[in-house]
């Protein structure tokens, strides 16, 4: 996670706090400049020194990887074989290569503890390594073989003083040539049973040292054809629509670290101002990338994700991505055990566990807002390949219509206009039906589609309405 005051606005963008209707409009944090006045009520208290490193290593002829048991078992060391130059930044316990999750409320206070002022709007934020004050997370257990590391930990809530989060994180890390395959599982057991809005997550967040500063990805409309990549070395929080499912940070010589996440298209990168490009693992200067798809975290849910870290040149990173199974090119969502990456804006469902359907309250959670949305994750679909979409659902409502809305890569939000939407008739008797949505020839259904959502266009008929969504597919 990016943990520095100069990144204040950038962090909001990274977490999805600003700019999109399909996220919650969270209150912004006022600009803050530290002062030398010890009586300044907004001045953060001094952080504790970092605990001595307690690292476990695995390596092969391509890479060397280390985790630190005094940093929640997060990845704190990564280098090419034969090199002693660590890529991973460890300035404080918000850096490293780790998992950081987000949920409500905002601010989050518990056990008489209030969040540190500068991070008060992060909400419930379990961080694998520890907290703002440099208290390390608790290690429950760990295992090591010659090619694999496993660690189970209880993360801390970042903005609070030494407060364990009510969840458990597990991470499996396995060497596979010049790649490390990582599986992460978080089991949540929150005392607060409120269903809060989905947030973009850091799954994972990766902080690298200053010499790795070239932020690279492919964001074009012809993925897997070796098209020209986009590169950025500026200091900003840049959203990247990674149509080949990867993003990378490279050094001056073009070598570094790639993040590949299967079927994921939403990435972020950020750079720290450092004209010299010099700095070791405990320097404040670092650069950053993550995968940050939206996720609704239930009070009793369990969430898994997998990714690969690829060490080497841009060609190595891209070759790895090209060798993996290609992402889906059409909707095939069947909600048998989870939400399949779908989430809500201004709406709720019945919660976890998901059993063969999403039971969504088909109405606005906050009636003062204009609408609600049931949103898919980001995708990469060619409209010409999708003449029809089938929605299998049961509606219990007085409304007689539902609406499908889609976005294109250049759209900064969903637009409920005829060129981006299709209204279709529904029957509100609570019976399961398959609705056939014909899109071929419709104005605006062309080019690349990168997200869809469902909503109720008849807000005057919404009270008490329910939608049971079983699937969204291209076949009945």
Could you explain how this protein is built, in words?
The chain has 476 residues and is mainly beta. It folds into two domains: 319 residues, Beta-galactosidase, Chain A, domain 5; 142 residues, Galactose-binding domain-like (Jelly Rolls), CATH 2.60.120. The longest helix has 10 residues. It is globular, with a radius of gyration of 23 Å. About 7% of the residues have low confidence.
Key descriptive features of the protein:
Jelly Rolls; 2 helices; Beta-galactosidase, Chain A, domain 5; 2 domains; six-stranded antiparallel beta sheet; mainly beta; about 475 residues; 34 strands; nine-stranded antiparallel beta sheet
CATH architecture of the largest domain: Distorted Sandwich
Major sheet details: 9 strands, antiparallel
Q: Count the domains.
A: 2
How do the strands line up in the largest sheet? Answer: 6-7-9-10-21-17-16-13-14
Instruction: State the oligomer.
Output: single chain
Distance between the termini: 43 Å
Uncertain spans, ≥5 residues at pLDDT below 50? 4-34
Which class best fits the helix and strand makeup? mainly beta
How much helicity do the residues have? under 10%
Indicate the mean pLDDT: 91
What is the overall silhouette?
Answer: globular
**How many helical stretches?**
2
From the alpha carbons, calculate the radius of gyration and give it in angstroms.
23 Å
Return the CATH topology of the largest domain.
Answer: Beta-galactosidase, Chain A, domain 5
Our estimate of the beta-strand percent is 35-45%
The CATH class of the largest domain: Mainly Beta
Count of individual beta strands: 34
Signal peptide: 1-23
Keywords: Signal
């Amino acid at each position: 996670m990016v943990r520095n005051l100069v990144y204040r606005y950038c962090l909001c963008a990274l977490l999805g706090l600003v700019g999109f209707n399909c996220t919650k409009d969270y209150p912004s944090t006022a600009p803050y400049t530290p002062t030398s006045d010890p009586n300044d009520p907004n001045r953060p208290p001094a952080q504790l020194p970092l605990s001595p490193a307690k690292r476990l290593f695995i390596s092969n002829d391509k890479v060397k990887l280390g985790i630190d048991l005094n940093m929640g078992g997060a990845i704190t060391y990564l280098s090419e074989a034969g090199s002693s130059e660590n890529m991973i930044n460890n300035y404080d316990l918000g850096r490293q290569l780790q998992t950081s999750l987000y949920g409500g409320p905002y601010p989050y206070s518990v056990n008489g503890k209030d969040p540190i002022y500068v991070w008060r709007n992060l909400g419930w934020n379990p961080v694998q390594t520890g907290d703002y004050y440099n208290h390390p997370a608790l290690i429950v257990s760990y295992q090591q073989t010659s090619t694999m590391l496993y660690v189970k930990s209880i993360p801390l809530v970042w903005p609070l003083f030494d407060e364990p989060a009510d969840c458990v994180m597990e991470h499996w890390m396995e060497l596979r040539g010049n790649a490390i395959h990582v599986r992460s599982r978080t089991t949540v057991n929150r005392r607060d049973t409120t269903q809060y809005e989905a947030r973009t997550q850091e799954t994972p967040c990766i902080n690298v040292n200053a010499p790795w500063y070239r932020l690279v990805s492919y964001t074009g409309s012809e993925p897997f054809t070796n098209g020209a990549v986009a590169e950025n070395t500026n200091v900003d929080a840049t959203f990247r629509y990674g149509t080949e499912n990867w993003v990378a940070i490279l050094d001056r010589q073009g070598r570094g670290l790639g993040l590949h996440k299967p079927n994921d298209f939403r990435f972020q990168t950020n750079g720290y101002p450092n004209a010299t490009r010099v700095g070791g693992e405990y320097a404040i200067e670092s650069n950053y990338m993550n995968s940050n798809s939206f996720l609704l975290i239930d009070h009793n849910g369990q969430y898994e994700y997998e990714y690969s870290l690829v060490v080497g040149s841009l060609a190595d990173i891209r070759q790895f991505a090209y060798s993996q199974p290609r992402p889906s090119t059409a909707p095939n969502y069947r909600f048998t055990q989870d939400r399949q990456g779908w989430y809500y804006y201004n709406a709720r469902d019945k919660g976890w566990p998901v059993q063969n359907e999403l039971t969504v309250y088909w109405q606005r959670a906050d009636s003062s807002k204009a609408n609600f949305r049931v949103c898919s994750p980001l995708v990469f679909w060619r409209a010409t390949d999708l003449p029809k979409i089938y929605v299998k659902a049961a509606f219990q409502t007085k409304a007689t219509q539902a609406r499908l809305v889609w976005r294109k890569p250049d759209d900064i939000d969903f637009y409920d206009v005829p060129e981006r939407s299709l209204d279709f008739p529904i029957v509100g008797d609570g019976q399961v039906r398959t609705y056939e949505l014909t899109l071929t020839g419709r104005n605006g259904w062309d080019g690349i589609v990168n997200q869809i959502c469902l909503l109720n266009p008849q807000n005057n008929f919404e009270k008490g309405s329910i939608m049971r969504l079983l699937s969204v597919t291209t076949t009945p």
